Every structure is written in C-alpha cells, then in structure tokens.
Amino acid sequence: MVTGPTGSGKSTSLVAMLQYINENRSENMITIEDPIEFIFEPKKCIISQREIGHDTWNFGNALRSSMREDPDIIFVGEIRDRETAESALSLAETGHLVFSTLHTNSAANTVNRYISFFPPEIQESVCDRLAESLIGVQSQMLVKSKMGTRVGIYELMLNTTSVRNNIKKREIEQIDNIIETSSLIGMINLKKYGQRLIDKQIVDPKELEWLMRGNGL
Fold it and tell me: Which end of the chain is more exposed for a tag (fewer CB within 10 A), N or C?
C-alpha cells in the first residue's frame, strides 16, 4: 500500500515501483485506474491497463474480471469501498502481488482504515487475513523545501512478525512504536525522516511543523 493525502505523490511512487518490475521481471500485470495517469510501455512484462468508466464499471468489477487473465501483479488505483477492499485482499491471499493506495497519513491509520471498510462482526477475521497478506505500507507527504521545490517525507512499515501479531490482536496503536524502533531492518519513521531533512538544511522546521499539524500528526 502507498498512502498519503491528495497531491502527495502516491501515483508517482507507484509508477516507479511498477516500472521497476516492468524492466526487471517477466510478469503479467494489470492496472485498474481512475483515470489512467501513466501509459506503460511493456518491457519484460505483459501489461493491460483499464480505466474506470471506459473499460470497466468500477474497481470491484474490474478486479473480479481480471482473474480470467491469470495476472501476477495487479495495481488498483484506490481502495474506496468494501467490495474493492475484499477483492484486493482475496487476490493477495491467492498469491497475487497487489498494489493500491489509500488517503491515510500513517501506516497505523492505513491498517485501521482498511479494517473499517468491513462491518464489525467480521473485522476480527479481516484482521487475521490482512495480517497474513500485507507486505508493507509506505506513507508519504510532500513538504516545501528551502529551495522552493517540494520534497517527500516517508514512513515505511514492513509486515514483520511483531506487526503481524499486533494487527491480529487489533493493537494497531503499537505499530508506531515498532516502526520507530525498527530502522535497522529498513522501517522508516515519518517524523525522524522529516527531522533528517531539517538537519540537512533541506526543510525549514516551521514548514514541517505546519505540514504535520495539518495532517493531524
């Protein structure tokens, strides 16, 4: 999952990830977007791109029909409702690599948001399924630099055993602590990443504080 507010560069990050796969792996890839933002030129991958409202009715319908093409990788432009969340989760459970986005501002909030698409009576089972299928969450925002450009600040959560257990137990609030103490295995804490930009004189502290406050962090 790649998450963040509108205009935070989610699509750009995902295009970079998918393009890397396209250039390095022989896979069958399907993208479902609203609208299509980047046209991929097939390199090593076979790529089929579909646009909501033009090639298919909605994300859920497109995900169901995509199974007939035996895809290896599926990019879902955005998880918007229970149907899409269920379809994406089912695809991940059956061995497909699924990429998607959510409008959330942290990894922990992403997990909570995904679970919230489902009614309370099945959320416990959804937690178990999500814990077993999720690979990771990258949350990102763009902040104005001292040069006047915008630079990204990132949070990266990897679904380690500790994270998985906390999702299963619905102790989602513990995920922030795990991220903060797991930098040696590649996790990135959003606030620490922002502080590094301040230390390197790339970002003004006031700009970062304004951004964090505006996103409830």
Answer: C
